[in-house]
Amino acid sequence: MAVSTTTALSIGGNVFSGQLRRWELNESKLFQKPRSHFRWLCLNDLHLLRFRIKTLNFNPRGSLLPSLYAYGKEADDAYLSNVNEDTDEMFDDLMKKYGEVVFTKNDRKSSSAELDDDAESLSFAVEMAKVASDVKAGDIRVLFVKPLVYWTRFFIIATAFSRPQIDAIGSRIRDLAEKKYGKIPSGDTKPNSWTLLDFGDVVIHIFLPQQRAFYNLEEFYGNATLIEVPSENQPPFHS
Amino acid sequence: MIQPQTHLNVADNSGARELMCIRVIGASNHRYAHIGDVIVAVIKEAVPNTPLERSEVIRAVIVRTSKELKRDNSMIMRYDDNAAVVIDQEGNPKGTRIFGVIARELRQLNFTKIVSLSA
Asked: What is the predominant subcellular site recorded for this chain (chain A) (predicted)?
Protein backbone atom coordinates (compact mmCIF):
# COMPACT_ATOMS: atom_id res chain seq x y z
CA MET A 1 0.00 0.00 0.00
CA ALA A 2 1.49 3.29 -0.98
CA VAL A 3 2.23 5.72 1.78
CA SER A 4 1.85 9.25 0.64
CA THR A 5 3.10 12.21 2.60
CA THR A 6 2.99 15.89 1.85
CA THR A 7 6.29 17.58 2.34
CA ALA A 8 7.96 20.74 1.21
CA LEU A 9 11.31 20.14 -0.44
CA SER A 10 13.78 22.71 -1.46
CA ILE A 11 15.89 21.72 -4.37
CA GLY A 12 18.38 24.24 -5.60
CA GLY A 13 16.65 27.06 -3.82
CA ASN A 14 13.27 26.35 -5.39
CA VAL A 15 10.60 25.10 -3.09
CA PHE A 16 8.29 22.33 -4.23
CA SER A 17 5.54 20.95 -2.21
CA GLY A 18 3.97 17.78 -3.28
CA GLN A 19 3.12 14.28 -2.56
CA LEU A 20 5.83 11.75 -2.12
CA ARG A 21 5.08 8.13 -2.45
CA ARG A 22 7.05 5.27 -1.09
CA TRP A 23 10.39 5.56 -2.63
CA GLU A 24 12.54 2.69 -1.61
CA LEU A 25 11.84 1.06 -4.92
CA ASN A 26 12.44 4.18 -6.97
CA GLU A 27 15.48 5.17 -5.05
CA SER A 28 17.92 2.81 -6.62
CA LYS A 29 16.84 3.74 -10.13
CA LEU A 30 16.72 7.49 -9.64
CA PHE A 31 20.09 7.75 -8.04
CA GLN A 32 21.99 5.37 -10.18
CA LYS A 33 23.22 8.26 -12.28
CA PRO A 34 25.16 10.30 -9.72
CA ARG A 35 26.63 7.16 -8.28
CA SER A 36 27.95 5.82 -11.52
CA HIS A 37 29.43 9.24 -12.33
CA PHE A 38 31.26 9.15 -9.07
CA ARG A 39 32.66 5.70 -9.63
CA TRP A 40 33.90 6.73 -13.06
CA LEU A 41 35.70 9.64 -11.49
CA CYS A 42 37.40 7.33 -9.04
CA LEU A 43 38.70 5.05 -11.73
CA ASN A 44 40.49 7.83 -13.58
CA ASP A 45 43.22 9.88 -12.00
CA LEU A 46 41.88 11.16 -8.75
CA HIS A 47 44.22 14.15 -8.84
CA LEU A 48 42.48 15.44 -11.95
CA LEU A 49 39.48 16.14 -9.79
CA ARG A 50 41.47 18.77 -7.96
CA PHE A 51 41.31 20.91 -11.08
CA ARG A 52 37.66 20.71 -11.80
CA ILE A 53 34.77 18.91 -10.25
CA LYS A 54 31.93 19.63 -12.56
CA THR A 55 30.21 16.32 -12.99
CA LEU A 56 29.08 16.06 -9.37
CA ASN A 57 25.82 17.94 -8.87
CA PHE A 58 26.20 20.70 -6.34
CA ASN A 59 23.30 22.92 -5.46
CA PRO A 60 23.99 26.63 -4.84
CA ARG A 61 24.56 25.98 -1.16
CA GLY A 62 27.49 23.81 -2.05
CA SER A 63 26.32 20.49 -0.68
CA LEU A 64 25.69 17.51 -2.87
CA LEU A 65 22.22 17.35 -4.32
CA PRO A 66 21.43 13.78 -3.27
CA SER A 67 21.70 14.88 0.35
CA LEU A 68 17.97 15.41 0.38
CA TYR A 69 17.20 11.76 -0.10
CA ALA A 70 17.28 9.11 2.53
CA TYR A 71 19.88 6.41 2.26
CA GLY A 72 20.03 3.16 4.06
CA LYS A 73 23.03 2.06 6.01
CA GLU A 74 24.10 -0.47 3.44
CA ALA A 75 27.73 -0.38 2.39
CA ASP A 76 26.77 0.67 -1.13
CA ASP A 77 25.58 4.06 -0.04
CA ALA A 78 28.04 4.62 2.78
CA TYR A 79 30.22 6.98 0.82
CA LEU A 80 27.40 9.43 0.34
CA SER A 81 26.25 9.36 3.93
CA ASN A 82 28.25 12.36 5.21
CA VAL A 83 27.56 14.63 2.32
CA ASN A 84 27.67 17.85 4.25
CA GLU A 85 31.35 17.48 5.09
CA ASP A 86 34.24 18.67 3.00
CA THR A 87 34.92 16.89 -0.26
CA ASP A 88 38.47 16.30 0.88
CA GLU A 89 37.24 14.22 3.75
CA MET A 90 35.05 12.36 1.34
CA PHE A 91 38.08 11.51 -0.74
CA ASP A 92 40.02 10.44 2.31
CA ASP A 93 37.25 8.08 3.28
CA LEU A 94 37.19 6.67 -0.21
CA MET A 95 40.91 6.13 -0.17
CA LYS A 96 40.73 4.35 3.15
CA LYS A 97 37.97 2.17 1.87
CA TYR A 98 39.32 1.29 -1.55
CA GLY A 99 43.02 1.85 -1.03
CA GLU A 100 45.26 4.51 -2.55
CA VAL A 101 45.69 2.83 -5.87
CA VAL A 102 42.48 1.92 -7.60
CA PHE A 103 43.80 1.48 -11.11
CA THR A 104 47.28 1.00 -12.53
CA LYS A 105 48.36 0.80 -16.09
CA ASN A 106 50.81 -2.04 -16.50
CA ASP A 107 53.19 -0.14 -18.72
CA ARG A 108 55.97 0.42 -16.21
CA LYS A 109 59.09 -1.43 -17.24
CA SER A 110 61.39 -3.01 -14.73
CA SER A 111 64.43 -0.98 -13.77
CA SER A 112 66.85 -3.20 -15.67
CA ALA A 113 64.81 -2.84 -18.86
CA GLU A 114 64.78 0.93 -18.29
CA LEU A 115 68.55 0.96 -17.98
CA ASP A 116 68.89 -0.99 -21.20
CA ASP A 117 66.67 1.51 -22.94
CA ASP A 118 68.73 4.32 -21.49
CA ALA A 119 71.93 2.77 -22.75
CA GLU A 120 70.44 2.32 -26.19
CA SER A 121 69.29 5.93 -26.35
CA LEU A 122 72.68 7.04 -25.06
CA SER A 123 74.52 5.26 -27.85
CA PHE A 124 72.13 6.77 -30.36
CA ALA A 125 72.64 10.23 -28.88
CA VAL A 126 76.43 9.92 -28.88
CA GLU A 127 76.36 8.77 -32.49
CA MET A 128 74.27 11.77 -33.51
CA ALA A 129 76.61 14.08 -31.62
CA LYS A 130 79.52 12.63 -33.55
CA VAL A 131 77.74 13.28 -36.84
CA ALA A 132 77.14 16.85 -35.79
CA SER A 133 80.79 17.32 -34.93
CA ASP A 134 81.74 15.92 -38.35
CA VAL A 135 79.86 18.80 -39.94
CA LYS A 136 81.74 21.22 -37.64
CA ALA A 137 78.87 22.14 -35.37
CA GLY A 138 79.95 24.19 -32.38
CA ASP A 139 79.81 23.32 -28.70
CA ILE A 140 77.84 20.10 -28.80
CA ARG A 141 76.34 19.17 -25.48
CA VAL A 142 74.53 15.96 -24.63
CA LEU A 143 72.33 16.28 -21.57
CA PHE A 144 70.65 13.49 -19.68
CA VAL A 145 67.28 15.02 -18.89
CA LYS A 146 65.32 11.94 -17.90
CA PRO A 147 65.12 12.84 -14.19
CA LEU A 148 63.87 16.32 -15.06
CA VAL A 149 61.47 15.68 -17.88
CA TYR A 150 59.03 12.87 -18.49
CA TRP A 151 58.78 13.04 -22.24
CA THR A 152 62.34 12.34 -23.35
CA ARG A 153 65.69 10.98 -22.19
CA PHE A 154 68.46 12.94 -23.86
CA PHE A 155 68.90 16.38 -25.29
CA ILE A 156 71.59 17.23 -27.80
CA ILE A 157 72.24 20.94 -28.17
CA ALA A 158 74.48 22.13 -30.99
CA THR A 159 75.34 25.42 -32.62
CA ALA A 160 75.51 25.90 -36.35
CA PHE A 161 76.96 29.08 -37.74
CA SER A 162 74.82 29.47 -40.83
CA ARG A 163 71.51 28.24 -42.16
CA PRO A 164 73.01 25.96 -44.82
CA GLN A 165 75.04 24.39 -42.04
CA ILE A 166 71.89 23.77 -40.03
CA ASP A 167 70.41 22.19 -43.11
CA ALA A 168 73.50 20.01 -43.56
CA ILE A 169 73.58 18.86 -39.93
CA GLY A 170 69.87 18.14 -40.01
CA SER A 171 69.95 16.12 -43.18
CA ARG A 172 73.00 14.12 -42.13
CA ILE A 173 71.46 13.25 -38.79
CA ARG A 174 68.22 12.29 -40.44
CA ASP A 175 69.94 10.07 -43.01
CA LEU A 176 72.08 8.28 -40.46
CA ALA A 177 69.19 7.74 -38.09
CA GLU A 178 67.05 6.31 -40.83
CA LYS A 179 69.74 4.11 -42.32
CA LYS A 180 71.27 2.75 -39.17
CA TYR A 181 68.49 2.85 -36.60
CA GLY A 182 65.38 3.13 -38.72
CA LYS A 183 64.13 6.15 -36.78
CA ILE A 184 62.40 9.02 -38.49
CA PRO A 185 62.32 12.31 -36.63
CA SER A 186 59.36 14.59 -36.24
CA GLY A 187 60.07 18.28 -35.94
CA ASP A 188 61.29 20.89 -38.36
CA THR A 189 61.72 19.93 -41.96
CA LYS A 190 62.56 23.42 -43.26
CA PRO A 191 65.74 24.96 -41.89
CA ASN A 192 64.95 27.31 -39.07
CA SER A 193 67.09 29.41 -36.79
CA TRP A 194 66.19 26.86 -34.12
CA THR A 195 65.85 23.46 -35.77
CA LEU A 196 64.50 20.68 -33.66
CA LEU A 197 64.65 16.96 -34.45
CA ASP A 198 62.53 14.80 -32.20
CA PHE A 199 63.50 11.12 -32.10
CA GLY A 200 61.30 10.22 -29.19
CA ASP A 201 63.93 9.42 -26.57
CA VAL A 202 66.41 11.89 -27.96
CA VAL A 203 65.67 15.47 -28.94
CA ILE A 204 68.23 17.39 -30.96
CA HIS A 205 68.32 21.20 -30.90
CA ILE A 206 70.35 23.01 -33.52
CA PHE A 207 70.64 26.72 -32.89
CA LEU A 208 72.16 29.73 -34.53
CA PRO A 209 74.46 31.51 -32.07
CA GLN A 210 72.03 34.32 -31.25
CA GLN A 211 69.13 31.90 -30.67
CA ARG A 212 71.23 29.77 -28.41
CA ALA A 213 72.04 32.75 -26.25
CA PHE A 214 68.44 33.94 -26.38
CA TYR A 215 66.74 30.70 -25.33
CA ASN A 216 69.54 29.54 -23.04
CA LEU A 217 68.39 25.96 -22.72
CA GLU A 218 71.51 24.96 -20.82
CA GLU A 219 70.51 27.23 -17.98
CA PHE A 220 66.96 25.94 -18.01
CA TYR A 221 68.19 22.35 -17.85
CA GLY A 222 71.10 23.19 -15.60
CA ASN A 223 70.33 20.27 -13.32
CA ALA A 224 70.76 17.75 -16.10
CA THR A 225 73.93 15.69 -16.09
CA LEU A 226 76.24 16.44 -18.96
CA ILE A 227 77.47 13.43 -20.93
CA GLU A 228 81.06 13.47 -22.13
CA VAL A 229 81.33 13.19 -25.87
CA PRO A 230 84.70 12.43 -27.43
CA SER A 231 84.93 15.29 -29.89
CA GLU A 232 87.70 16.63 -32.05
CA ASN A 233 88.77 20.18 -31.41
CA GLN A 234 85.62 22.27 -31.44
CA PRO A 235 85.60 26.06 -31.09
CA PRO A 236 84.25 26.66 -27.56
CA PHE A 237 81.00 28.57 -27.60
CA HIS A 238 80.99 31.49 -25.27
CA SER A 239 77.57 31.55 -23.60
CA MET B 1 36.90 26.39 -28.85
CA ILE B 2 38.63 29.61 -29.71
CA GLN B 3 37.14 31.82 -32.37
CA PRO B 4 37.70 35.40 -33.49
CA GLN B 5 37.07 37.89 -30.67
CA THR B 6 38.14 35.36 -28.03
CA HIS B 7 40.48 36.74 -25.40
CA LEU B 8 43.32 34.48 -24.36
CA ASN B 9 45.95 34.66 -21.68
CA VAL B 10 49.56 34.46 -22.71
CA ALA B 11 51.51 31.58 -21.25
CA ASP B 12 55.03 32.81 -21.88
CA ASN B 13 57.33 35.69 -21.05
CA SER B 14 57.26 37.27 -24.48
CA GLY B 15 55.81 40.52 -23.15
CA ALA B 16 52.18 40.17 -24.11
CA ARG B 17 49.59 39.62 -21.40
CA GLU B 18 46.33 39.21 -23.25
CA LEU B 19 45.52 38.42 -26.85
CA MET B 20 42.37 38.58 -28.86
CA CYS B 21 41.99 36.03 -31.61
CA ILE B 22 41.38 37.44 -35.06
CA ARG B 23 41.59 34.38 -37.25
CA VAL B 24 42.15 30.65 -37.04
CA ILE B 25 44.93 29.62 -39.45
CA GLY B 26 44.21 26.84 -41.88
CA ALA B 27 40.47 27.00 -41.58
CA SER B 28 37.60 28.53 -43.38
CA ASN B 29 35.01 30.61 -41.56
CA HIS B 30 33.05 29.03 -38.70
CA ARG B 31 35.79 26.86 -37.41
CA TYR B 32 36.89 26.80 -33.81
CA ALA B 33 40.50 26.52 -32.78
CA HIS B 34 41.58 23.97 -30.20
CA ILE B 35 44.82 23.11 -28.46
CA GLY B 36 47.63 22.99 -31.00
CA ASP B 37 46.05 25.29 -33.57
CA VAL B 38 47.79 28.42 -34.73
CA ILE B 39 45.80 31.64 -34.58
CA VAL B 40 46.39 35.20 -35.66
CA ALA B 41 45.85 37.48 -32.70
CA VAL B 42 46.18 41.09 -31.71
CA ILE B 43 47.82 42.04 -28.44
CA LYS B 44 45.29 43.64 -26.13
CA GLU B 45 47.53 44.08 -23.12
CA ALA B 46 51.28 44.02 -22.88
CA VAL B 47 53.95 44.28 -20.22
CA PRO B 48 55.75 47.65 -20.53
CA ASN B 49 59.31 47.83 -21.87
CA THR B 50 59.21 44.62 -23.89
CA PRO B 51 59.58 44.11 -27.63
CA LEU B 52 55.87 43.37 -28.02
CA GLU B 53 53.38 46.22 -27.78
CA ARG B 54 49.66 46.64 -27.57
CA SER B 55 47.70 46.36 -30.85
CA GLU B 56 50.42 44.41 -32.58
CA VAL B 57 49.26 41.56 -34.77
CA ILE B 58 51.08 38.30 -34.06
CA ARG B 59 50.66 34.58 -34.39
CA ALA B 60 50.11 32.30 -31.44
CA VAL B 61 49.63 28.64 -30.63
CA ILE B 62 46.84 27.64 -28.29
CA VAL B 63 48.11 25.63 -25.34
CA ARG B 64 45.16 25.54 -22.95
CA THR B 65 41.44 25.72 -23.50
CA SER B 66 38.44 25.73 -21.27
CA LYS B 67 36.80 23.40 -23.72
CA GLU B 68 37.65 19.77 -23.01
CA LEU B 69 40.41 18.00 -24.87
CA LYS B 70 39.65 14.35 -25.51
CA ARG B 71 42.31 11.69 -25.71
CA ASP B 72 42.15 8.30 -27.33
CA ASN B 73 42.25 6.56 -23.99
CA SER B 74 38.97 8.40 -23.21
CA MET B 75 40.66 10.75 -20.79
CA ILE B 76 39.25 14.26 -20.87
CA MET B 77 41.23 17.34 -19.86
CA ARG B 78 39.78 20.72 -19.23
CA TYR B 79 41.73 23.76 -18.07
CA ASP B 80 40.53 26.79 -16.20
CA ASP B 81 41.51 29.31 -18.82
CA ASN B 82 42.31 29.80 -22.49
CA ALA B 83 45.99 30.40 -23.07
CA ALA B 84 48.34 30.75 -25.99
CA VAL B 85 52.05 31.07 -26.66
CA VAL B 86 53.26 33.78 -29.03
CA ILE B 87 55.28 32.46 -31.97
CA ASP B 88 56.94 34.05 -34.96
CA GLN B 89 56.54 33.29 -38.65
CA GLU B 90 59.06 30.46 -38.50
CA GLY B 91 57.24 28.80 -35.63
CA ASN B 92 59.75 29.63 -32.92
CA PRO B 93 58.31 30.88 -29.64
CA LYS B 94 58.96 34.55 -29.00
CA GLY B 95 59.37 34.13 -25.27
CA THR B 96 62.06 32.13 -23.52
CA ARG B 97 60.00 30.36 -20.89
CA ILE B 98 56.50 28.91 -20.91
CA PHE B 99 54.34 29.09 -17.80
CA GLY B 100 51.66 26.75 -16.65
CA VAL B 101 50.70 23.27 -17.67
CA ILE B 102 51.14 22.13 -21.27
CA ALA B 103 49.29 19.17 -22.74
CA ARG B 104 51.42 16.48 -24.30
CA GLU B 105 49.43 16.73 -27.52
CA LEU B 106 51.59 19.69 -28.45
CA ARG B 107 54.58 17.42 -28.90
CA GLN B 108 52.76 15.29 -31.41
CA LEU B 109 51.67 18.39 -33.27
CA ASN B 110 55.32 19.40 -33.82
CA PHE B 111 55.50 22.02 -31.10
CA THR B 112 58.26 20.26 -29.19
CA LYS B 113 60.02 23.62 -28.86
CA ILE B 114 57.22 24.89 -26.67
CA VAL B 115 57.24 21.70 -24.63
CA SER B 116 61.00 21.91 -24.12
CA LEU B 117 60.71 25.48 -22.83
CA SER B 118 58.03 24.62 -20.30
CA ALA B 119 58.77 23.33 -16.84
From this structure: plastid
- The pTM for the full model equals 0.66
User: Among all residues of chain B, which has the CA nearest to that of A105?
Assistant: B73
Q: A142 with A203: CB under 8 angstroms?
A: no
Gap between the Cα atoms of A206 and A164, Å rounded:
12
CA distances from B67 to A49, B80, B98 (A): 16, 9, 21
What's the CA gap between B99 and B45, in Å, rounded? 17
Chain A residues 137-166 with CB within 8 Å of chain B: 151, 155
Angstrom distance (rounded) from CA A37 to CA A182: 45
Domain residue ranges in chain B = 6-117
Task: Provide the ipTM.
Answer: 0.87
pLDDT 10s digits, B8-65: 999 999 999 999 999 999 877 778 999 999 999 999 999 999 999 999 999 999 999 9
- Cβ neighbours of residue A21 closer than 8 Å, sequence gap 6 or more: A2, A3, A4
In chain B, whose CA is at the least distance from the CA of A217? Answer: B117
- The alpha carbon dihedral of A203, A236, A208, B103 has a sign of positive
CATH for B6-117 is 2.40.150.20
Q: Which residue of B lies nearest to A54 if distances are taken between CA atoms?
A: B78
Closest-CA distance, B96 to chain A, in angstroms, reads 5
For residues A131 and A211, the answer to whether their CB atoms sit within 8 Å is: no
Bridge-based pairing of strands B7-10 and B38-46 is unpaired
Q: Does A205 touch chain B (CB under 8 A)?
A: yes
User: What is the radius of gyration, based on Cα positions, of chain A?
Assistant: 30
Residue B46: CB partners within 8 Å, gap ≥ 6?
B15, B16, B17, B52, B53, B54, B56
- Tell me how far apart the alpha carbons of residues B36 and A90 are, in angstroms, rounded to a whole number: 36
Instruction: Specify the 3-state DSSP secondary structure of B83.
Output: strand
Cα–Cα distance for residue pair B82/B66, rounded to 1 Å: 6
- At the fourth CATH level, the homologous superfamily of domain A111-227 is Beta Polymerase, domain 2 (3.30.460.10)
